[in-house]
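ok, trying the design again with the full structure, not the truncated one.
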Protein backbone atom coordinates (compact mmCIF):
# COMPACT_ATOMS: atom_id res chain seq x y z
CA UNK A 1 0.00 0.00 0.00
CA UNK A 2 1.26 3.49 -0.79
CA UNK A 3 1.66 6.37 1.63
CA UNK A 4 -1.63 7.71 0.27
CA UNK A 5 -3.62 4.80 1.68
CA UNK A 6 -5.92 5.85 4.54
CA UNK A 7 -7.35 2.44 5.39
CA UNK A 8 -6.30 0.09 8.17
CA UNK A 9 -4.66 -2.75 6.31
CA UNK A 10 -2.44 -5.76 6.86
CA UNK A 11 -0.73 -4.85 3.57
CA UNK A 12 1.20 -7.48 1.60
CA UNK A 13 2.39 -9.35 4.70
CA UNK A 14 -1.16 -9.59 6.03
CA UNK A 15 -2.43 -10.88 2.70
CA UNK A 16 0.32 -13.51 2.60
CA UNK A 17 -0.67 -14.57 6.13
CA UNK A 18 -4.32 -14.75 5.08
CA UNK A 19 -3.51 -17.01 2.13
CA UNK A 20 -1.31 -19.29 4.22
CA UNK A 21 -3.90 -19.63 6.98
CA UNK A 22 -6.59 -20.29 4.39
CA UNK A 23 -4.45 -23.06 2.87
CA UNK A 24 -4.06 -24.57 6.36
CA UNK A 25 -7.82 -24.42 6.98
CA UNK A 26 -7.49 -21.97 9.88
CA UNK A 27 -10.72 -21.01 11.65
CA UNK A 28 -10.27 -18.01 13.94
CA UNK A 29 -13.65 -18.54 15.50
CA UNK A 30 -12.18 -21.49 17.41
CA UNK A 31 -9.96 -21.37 20.48
CA UNK A 32 -7.01 -23.09 18.79
CA UNK A 33 -6.16 -22.70 15.12
CA UNK A 34 -3.21 -22.22 12.79
CA UNK A 35 -1.60 -18.77 12.71
CA UNK A 36 0.83 -17.71 9.96
CA UNK A 37 3.18 -14.78 10.64
CA UNK A 38 5.16 -13.09 7.88
CA UNK A 39 7.65 -11.10 9.92
CA UNK A 40 10.03 -8.33 8.87
CA UNK A 41 13.77 -8.92 8.64
CA UNK A 42 16.38 -6.43 7.37
CA UNK A 43 13.77 -4.55 5.38
CA UNK A 44 15.21 -1.02 5.39
CA UNK A 45 15.82 -0.75 1.63
CA UNK A 46 13.54 -3.58 0.48
CA UNK A 47 10.31 -2.94 -1.40
CA UNK A 48 7.57 -5.32 -2.57
CA UNK A 49 6.63 -2.93 -5.39
CA UNK A 50 8.15 -4.75 -8.33
CA UNK A 51 5.81 -3.60 -11.12
CA UNK A 52 7.51 -0.41 -12.22
CA UNK A 53 5.80 2.94 -12.53
CA UNK A 54 6.81 6.30 -11.16
CA UNK A 55 6.36 5.11 -7.60
CA UNK A 56 7.27 1.45 -8.07
CA UNK A 57 3.80 -0.11 -8.01
CA UNK A 58 2.32 0.71 -11.40
CA UNK A 59 -0.92 -1.29 -11.05
CA UNK A 60 -2.59 0.41 -8.10
CA UNK A 61 -2.41 -0.21 -4.37
CA UNK A 62 -4.73 -3.20 -4.06
CA UNK A 63 -3.49 -5.05 -7.11
CA UNK A 64 0.16 -4.54 -6.15
CA UNK A 65 -0.52 -5.60 -2.56
CA UNK A 66 -2.35 -8.75 -3.62
CA UNK A 67 0.32 -9.75 -6.13
CA UNK A 68 3.16 -9.13 -3.70
CA UNK A 69 1.41 -11.00 -0.90
CA UNK A 70 0.67 -13.95 -3.17
CA UNK A 71 4.30 -14.23 -4.28
CA UNK A 72 5.44 -14.30 -0.65
CA UNK A 73 2.81 -16.90 0.22
CA UNK A 74 3.78 -19.15 -2.68
CA UNK A 75 7.47 -19.12 -1.76
CA UNK A 76 6.70 -19.61 1.95
CA UNK A 77 4.37 -22.51 1.16
CA UNK A 78 7.04 -24.13 -1.01
CA UNK A 79 9.59 -23.84 1.80
CA UNK A 80 7.07 -25.09 4.37
CA UNK A 81 6.05 -28.12 2.34
CA UNK A 82 9.63 -29.11 1.50
CA UNK A 83 11.27 -28.42 4.87
CA UNK A 84 13.30 -31.42 6.05
CA UNK A 85 16.09 -30.12 8.28
CA UNK A 86 15.00 -30.28 11.95
CA UNK A 87 15.71 -27.51 14.45
CA UNK A 88 17.64 -29.06 17.31
CA UNK A 89 19.60 -27.80 20.29
CA UNK A 90 19.13 -25.61 23.36
CA UNK A 91 16.82 -22.64 23.85
CA UNK A 92 18.52 -19.51 25.19
CA UNK A 93 18.20 -15.71 25.25
CA UNK A 94 20.32 -12.65 26.01
CA UNK A 95 18.82 -9.17 26.41
CA UNK A 96 20.24 -5.78 27.31
CA UNK A 97 19.41 -2.09 27.06
CA UNK A 98 22.00 0.13 25.38
CA UNK A 99 22.29 3.94 25.37
CA UNK A 100 22.61 4.34 21.63
CA UNK A 101 23.18 8.11 21.53
CA UNK A 102 26.48 8.07 23.46
CA UNK A 103 28.28 4.80 22.87
CA UNK A 104 32.00 4.29 22.32
CA UNK A 105 32.64 2.14 19.24
CA UNK A 106 35.87 0.15 19.32
CA UNK A 107 38.28 0.47 16.36
CA UNK A 108 37.60 -3.08 15.13
CA UNK A 109 33.93 -2.19 14.61
CA UNK A 110 34.63 1.16 12.94
CA UNK A 111 37.38 2.21 10.51
CA UNK A 112 40.34 1.27 12.68
CA UNK A 113 39.84 4.34 14.86
CA UNK A 114 37.78 4.57 18.03
CA UNK A 115 34.45 6.31 17.25
CA UNK A 116 31.24 7.34 19.02
CA UNK A 117 27.57 7.33 18.25
CA UNK A 118 25.73 10.68 18.16
CA UNK A 119 22.83 12.54 19.67
CA UNK A 120 19.76 11.48 17.69
CA UNK A 121 18.97 13.56 14.61
CA UNK A 122 17.20 13.20 11.27
CA UNK A 123 18.78 14.34 8.02
CA UNK A 124 17.00 16.36 5.39
CA UNK A 125 16.75 13.49 2.89
CA UNK A 126 14.50 11.65 5.37
CA UNK A 127 11.73 14.05 4.34
CA UNK A 128 12.27 13.19 0.67
CA UNK A 129 11.00 9.67 1.24
CA UNK A 130 12.05 6.57 -0.67
CA UNK A 131 11.56 5.80 -4.36
CA UNK A 132 8.15 4.14 -3.87
CA UNK A 133 6.94 6.56 -1.18
CA UNK A 134 8.17 10.03 -2.11
CA UNK A 135 7.84 13.01 0.19
CA UNK A 136 9.32 16.45 -0.48
CA UNK A 137 12.88 17.56 -1.12
CA UNK A 138 15.45 15.22 -2.63
CA UNK A 139 17.85 12.50 -1.57
CA UNK A 140 21.62 12.84 -1.55
CA UNK A 141 21.97 16.40 -0.23
CA UNK A 142 25.22 17.25 1.51
CA UNK A 143 25.51 19.84 4.28
CA UNK A 144 26.37 22.69 1.93
CA UNK A 145 23.51 22.03 -0.50
CA UNK A 146 21.02 21.69 2.34
CA UNK A 147 22.00 24.78 4.34
CA UNK A 148 18.81 26.71 3.67
CA UNK A 149 16.34 23.84 3.56
CA UNK A 150 12.91 24.82 4.92
CA UNK A 151 12.60 21.83 7.27
CA UNK A 152 15.36 23.26 9.45
CA UNK A 153 13.32 26.40 10.07
CA UNK A 154 10.19 24.38 10.80
CA UNK A 155 12.13 22.08 13.13
CA UNK A 156 13.52 25.03 15.10
CA UNK A 157 10.06 26.49 15.56
CA UNK A 158 8.26 23.31 16.54
CA UNK A 159 10.84 20.99 18.08
CA UNK A 160 14.48 21.41 19.13
CA UNK A 161 17.13 23.55 17.48
CA UNK A 162 18.42 21.73 14.37
CA UNK A 163 22.04 22.78 14.78
CA UNK A 164 24.88 21.26 12.75
CA UNK A 165 26.53 18.33 14.50
CA UNK A 166 30.02 17.26 13.34
CA UNK A 167 29.40 13.87 14.94
CA UNK A 168 26.72 13.22 12.30
CA UNK A 169 29.29 13.31 9.51
CA UNK A 170 27.77 13.84 6.07
CA UNK A 171 24.24 14.27 7.43
CA UNK A 172 22.73 17.78 7.09
CA UNK A 173 20.62 17.83 10.25
CA UNK A 174 17.02 18.87 9.65
CA UNK A 175 15.47 17.79 12.93
CA UNK A 176 17.08 17.33 16.33
CA UNK A 177 15.29 14.62 18.29
CA UNK A 178 15.39 16.41 21.65
CA UNK A 179 17.33 13.71 23.48
CA UNK A 180 19.42 16.13 25.54
CA UNK A 181 16.70 18.70 26.27
CA UNK A 182 15.27 17.93 29.73
CA UNK A 183 12.28 20.19 29.15
CA UNK A 184 11.27 18.45 25.91
CA UNK A 185 9.81 15.02 25.26
CA UNK A 186 12.34 13.13 23.09
CA UNK A 187 11.09 12.30 19.61
CA UNK A 188 12.89 8.96 19.59
CA UNK A 189 14.16 6.70 22.39
CA UNK A 190 17.88 6.82 23.14
CA UNK A 191 17.99 3.74 25.39
CA UNK A 192 17.06 0.79 23.22
CA UNK A 193 16.66 -2.98 23.71
CA UNK A 194 18.92 -5.48 21.94
CA UNK A 195 18.19 -9.20 22.08
CA UNK A 196 19.33 -12.57 20.77
CA UNK A 197 16.95 -15.52 20.95
CA UNK A 198 18.35 -18.96 20.24
CA UNK A 199 16.13 -21.89 19.29
CA UNK A 200 18.41 -24.83 18.67
CA UNK A 201 20.66 -24.17 15.69
CA UNK A 202 18.77 -20.96 14.77
CA UNK A 203 19.48 -17.53 16.31
CA UNK A 204 17.14 -14.55 15.91
CA UNK A 205 18.72 -11.11 16.31
CA UNK A 206 16.04 -8.72 17.53
CA UNK A 207 16.75 -5.09 16.61
CA UNK A 208 14.52 -2.02 17.17
CA UNK A 209 15.43 -0.64 13.75
CA UNK A 210 14.91 -1.11 10.04
CA UNK A 211 18.27 -2.38 8.82
CA UNK A 212 19.20 -2.16 5.16
CA UNK A 213 19.98 -5.37 3.28
CA UNK A 214 23.76 -5.00 3.59
CA UNK A 215 23.61 -3.79 7.20
CA UNK A 216 21.62 -6.93 8.02
CA UNK A 217 24.12 -9.18 6.24
CA UNK A 218 27.02 -7.70 8.18
CA UNK A 219 25.23 -8.01 11.51
CA UNK A 220 24.21 -11.61 10.81
CA UNK A 221 27.82 -12.50 9.96
CA UNK A 222 29.03 -10.87 13.18
CA UNK A 223 26.63 -12.94 15.29
CA UNK A 224 27.29 -16.16 13.35
CA UNK A 225 31.03 -15.80 13.89
CA UNK A 226 30.40 -15.88 17.66
CA UNK A 227 27.64 -18.50 17.81
CA UNK A 228 28.76 -20.80 15.00
CA UNK A 229 31.24 -22.71 17.19
CA UNK A 230 28.40 -23.19 19.72
CA UNK A 231 26.19 -24.98 17.17
CA UNK A 232 24.24 -22.17 15.50
CA UNK A 233 24.23 -22.37 11.71
CA UNK A 234 21.41 -19.94 10.83
CA UNK A 235 21.02 -16.32 11.94
CA UNK A 236 17.95 -14.23 11.10
CA UNK A 237 17.28 -10.55 11.72
CA UNK A 238 13.99 -9.76 13.49
CA UNK A 239 13.40 -6.12 12.63
CA UNK A 240 11.17 -3.61 14.44
CA UNK A 241 11.52 -5.67 17.63
CA UNK A 242 10.78 -4.50 21.19
CA UNK A 243 11.02 -0.78 20.31
CA UNK A 244 11.55 1.44 17.26
CA UNK A 245 14.14 4.06 16.29
CA UNK A 246 13.96 4.30 12.50
CA UNK A 247 16.76 3.03 10.19
CA UNK A 248 20.32 1.71 10.23
CA UNK A 249 22.46 2.00 7.10
CA UNK A 250 26.03 0.88 6.45
CA UNK A 251 28.79 3.48 6.65
CA UNK A 252 28.91 3.66 2.84
CA UNK A 253 25.13 4.06 2.55
CA UNK A 254 25.18 6.69 5.28
CA UNK A 255 27.72 8.76 3.33
CA UNK A 256 25.36 8.87 0.33
CA UNK A 257 22.63 10.47 2.51
CA UNK A 258 19.69 8.91 0.78
CA UNK A 259 16.52 8.25 2.75
CA UNK A 260 17.94 5.35 4.78
CA UNK A 261 21.17 7.11 5.72
CA UNK A 262 19.36 10.34 6.62
CA UNK A 263 17.02 8.27 8.82
CA UNK A 264 19.88 6.62 10.75
CA UNK A 265 19.43 8.62 13.95
CA UNK A 266 22.65 7.95 15.82
CA UNK A 267 25.20 8.81 13.20
CA UNK A 268 27.58 7.07 10.78
CA UNK A 269 28.83 4.45 13.24
CA UNK A 270 25.43 3.11 14.32
CA UNK A 271 25.92 -0.24 12.57
CA UNK A 272 29.39 -0.55 14.09
CA UNK A 273 27.87 0.05 17.52
CA UNK A 274 25.25 -2.66 16.91
CA UNK A 275 27.87 -5.15 15.74
CA UNK A 276 29.90 -4.40 18.85
CA UNK A 277 27.00 -4.82 21.27
CA UNK A 278 25.65 -7.95 19.60
CA UNK A 279 29.14 -9.44 19.69
CA UNK A 280 28.99 -8.93 23.46
CA UNK A 281 25.58 -10.62 23.73
CA UNK A 282 26.47 -13.48 21.40
CA UNK A 283 29.78 -14.14 23.16
CA UNK A 284 28.00 -14.27 26.51
CA UNK A 285 25.46 -16.71 25.10
CA UNK A 286 28.11 -18.94 23.57
CA UNK A 287 29.98 -19.21 26.89
CA UNK A 288 26.94 -19.36 29.16
CA UNK A 289 27.56 -15.99 30.82
CA UNK A 290 25.00 -13.45 31.96
CA UNK A 291 24.99 -9.86 30.68
CA UNK A 292 24.18 -6.67 32.62
CA UNK A 293 20.69 -5.34 32.02
CA UNK A 294 22.03 -1.93 31.00
CA UNK A 295 20.49 1.50 31.67
CA UNK A 296 16.75 1.75 32.14
CA UNK A 297 14.82 3.61 29.45
CA UNK A 298 12.94 6.75 30.43
CA UNK A 299 9.44 6.34 31.80
CA UNK A 300 7.34 8.68 29.65
CA UNK A 301 3.98 7.16 30.55
CA UNK A 302 2.93 10.37 32.27
CA UNK A 303 3.78 12.62 29.33
CA UNK A 304 1.94 10.94 26.48
CA UNK A 305 -0.17 13.14 24.25
CA UNK A 306 -2.14 12.85 21.02
CA UNK A 307 -3.22 15.19 18.27
CA UNK A 308 -6.40 13.21 17.71
CA UNK A 309 -9.63 14.42 19.23
CA UNK A 310 -12.29 12.23 20.73
CA UNK A 311 -15.75 11.91 19.22
CA UNK A 312 -17.02 15.48 19.43
CA UNK A 313 -20.51 14.75 18.08
CA UNK A 314 -22.18 11.52 17.05
CA UNK A 315 -25.42 12.23 15.18
CA UNK A 316 -27.22 10.40 12.38
CA UNK A 317 -27.69 12.10 8.99
CA UNK A 318 -30.54 14.58 8.55
CA UNK A 319 -33.90 12.76 8.38
CA UNK A 320 -32.13 9.45 8.95
CA UNK A 321 -30.90 7.21 11.72
CA UNK A 322 -27.92 5.04 12.50
CA UNK A 323 -28.17 1.73 10.70
CA UNK A 324 -29.88 3.13 7.59
CA UNK A 325 -28.64 1.84 4.25
CA UNK A 326 -26.98 4.72 2.39
CA UNK A 327 -26.19 2.71 -0.76
CA UNK A 328 -27.94 -0.60 -1.28
CA UNK A 329 -26.60 -3.53 -3.23
CA UNK A 330 -28.06 -4.52 -6.56
CA UNK A 331 -30.37 -7.56 -6.53
CA UNK A 332 -28.15 -9.56 -8.92
CA UNK A 333 -24.41 -9.84 -9.60
CA UNK A 334 -22.45 -11.83 -12.13
CA UNK A 335 -19.10 -13.52 -11.45
CA UNK A 336 -16.25 -11.01 -11.30
CA UNK A 337 -18.45 -8.01 -10.53
CA UNK A 338 -17.85 -5.82 -7.48
CA UNK A 339 -20.48 -5.45 -4.75
CA UNK A 340 -20.67 -2.08 -2.98
CA UNK A 341 -22.91 -1.25 -0.06
CA UNK A 342 -22.86 1.62 2.45
CA UNK A 343 -24.50 2.17 5.84
CA UNK A 344 -24.84 5.10 8.19
CA UNK A 345 -23.04 3.93 11.30
CA UNK A 346 -21.90 5.56 14.51
CA UNK A 347 -18.33 6.79 14.78
CA UNK A 348 -15.88 3.85 14.84
CA UNK A 349 -13.89 5.41 17.70
CA UNK A 350 -16.77 4.64 20.04
CA UNK A 351 -15.98 0.92 19.81
CA UNK A 352 -12.94 -0.44 17.99
CA UNK A 353 -14.64 -3.83 17.65
CA UNK A 354 -11.52 -5.63 18.85
CA UNK A 355 -11.54 -9.23 17.62
CA UNK A 356 -14.75 -8.28 15.79
CA UNK A 357 -15.57 -6.30 12.67
CA UNK A 358 -17.43 -3.18 11.56
CA UNK A 359 -18.71 -4.84 8.39
CA UNK A 360 -19.38 -8.44 7.49
CA UNK A 361 -20.99 -10.52 4.77
CA UNK A 362 -23.56 -13.12 5.75
CA UNK A 363 -25.01 -16.10 3.86
CA UNK A 364 -28.47 -17.59 4.25
CA UNK A 365 -28.24 -21.36 4.48
CA UNK A 366 -30.90 -23.84 3.41
CA UNK A 367 -32.30 -23.82 6.93
CA UNK A 368 -32.70 -20.05 6.90
CA UNK A 369 -29.85 -19.48 9.36
CA UNK A 370 -27.58 -16.57 8.53
CA UNK A 371 -23.90 -17.37 8.93
CA UNK A 372 -20.91 -15.12 8.48
CA UNK A 373 -18.79 -15.85 5.41
CA UNK A 374 -15.24 -16.03 6.82
CA UNK A 375 -13.34 -16.24 3.52
CA UNK A 376 -14.99 -13.41 1.58
CA UNK A 377 -12.59 -10.98 -0.09
CA UNK A 378 -13.82 -7.81 1.63
CA UNK A 379 -12.21 -4.60 2.71
CA UNK A 380 -13.56 -1.95 5.04
CA UNK A 381 -13.24 1.80 5.07
CA UNK A 382 -14.79 4.59 7.12
CA UNK A 383 -15.48 8.09 5.83
CA UNK A 384 -15.89 10.24 8.94
CA UNK A 385 -17.18 13.80 9.22
CA UNK A 386 -17.80 15.93 12.30
CA UNK A 387 -21.29 14.52 12.83
CA UNK A 388 -21.66 11.29 10.85
CA UNK A 389 -19.74 8.22 9.81
CA UNK A 390 -20.40 6.22 6.66
CA UNK A 391 -19.25 2.62 6.51
CA UNK A 392 -18.57 1.12 3.11
CA UNK A 393 -18.01 -2.54 2.24
CA UNK A 394 -16.49 -3.47 -1.12
CA UNK A 395 -16.26 -7.10 -2.26
CA UNK A 396 -14.78 -8.70 -5.35
CA UNK A 397 -17.02 -11.58 -6.38
CA UNK A 398 -15.05 -14.78 -7.17
CA UNK A 399 -15.38 -16.13 -10.69
CA UNK A 400 -17.03 -19.41 -9.64
CA UNK A 401 -19.27 -19.93 -6.63
CA UNK A 402 -22.80 -21.39 -6.40
CA UNK A 403 -25.85 -19.11 -6.26
CA UNK A 404 -26.73 -17.97 -2.74
CA UNK A 405 -28.68 -15.24 -1.04
CA UNK A 406 -26.21 -13.04 0.79
CA UNK A 407 -26.31 -9.80 2.73
CA UNK A 408 -23.91 -7.34 4.31
CA UNK A 409 -24.07 -6.19 7.92
CA UNK A 410 -22.74 -2.99 9.46
CA UNK A 411 -21.89 -2.98 13.16
CA UNK A 412 -20.94 0.03 15.22
CA UNK A 413 -21.70 1.57 18.59
CA UNK A 414 -23.50 4.88 18.92
CA UNK A 415 -22.20 7.19 21.58
CA UNK A 416 -22.67 6.50 24.39
CA UNK A 417 -23.84 2.87 24.33
CA UNK A 418 -26.58 1.63 21.96
CA UNK A 419 -25.56 -0.87 19.31
CA UNK A 420 -26.62 -0.42 15.69
CA UNK A 421 -27.04 -3.02 12.98
CA UNK A 422 -28.22 -2.58 9.40
CA UNK A 423 -28.71 -5.03 6.54
CA UNK A 424 -28.64 -4.82 2.75
CA UNK A 425 -29.69 -7.87 0.74
CA UNK A 426 -28.20 -9.01 -2.57
CA UNK A 427 -28.80 -12.14 -4.61
CA UNK A 428 -25.50 -13.42 -6.02
CA UNK A 429 -25.45 -15.82 -8.95
CA UNK A 430 -22.40 -17.59 -10.26
CA UNK A 431 -21.67 -20.60 -12.44
CA UNK A 432 -18.64 -22.80 -12.68
CA UNK A 433 -16.68 -22.35 -15.89
CA UNK A 434 -16.55 -25.32 -18.31
CA UNK A 435 -13.62 -27.62 -17.81
CA UNK A 436 -11.66 -29.53 -20.38
CA UNK A 437 -10.05 -32.94 -20.06
CA UNK A 438 -7.04 -34.32 -21.75
Amino acid sequence: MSNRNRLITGDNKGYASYLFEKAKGADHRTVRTFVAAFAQSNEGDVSPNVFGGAEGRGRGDFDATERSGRLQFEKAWQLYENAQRPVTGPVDVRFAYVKMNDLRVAPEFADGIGRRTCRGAIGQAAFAGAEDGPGFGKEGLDREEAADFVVRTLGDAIFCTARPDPCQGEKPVALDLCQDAPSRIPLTPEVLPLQIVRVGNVAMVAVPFELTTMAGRRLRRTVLDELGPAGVDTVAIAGLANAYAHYVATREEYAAQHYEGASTHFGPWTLGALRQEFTRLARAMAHGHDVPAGPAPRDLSGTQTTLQTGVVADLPPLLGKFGDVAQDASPLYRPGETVRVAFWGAHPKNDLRTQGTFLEVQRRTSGGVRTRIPSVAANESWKATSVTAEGRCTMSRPAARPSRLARSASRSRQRPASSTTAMAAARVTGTSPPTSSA
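Keeping the full-length input from now on. The helical segments are 11-23, 61-82, 150-158, 213-227, 251-256, 259-262, 270-287.
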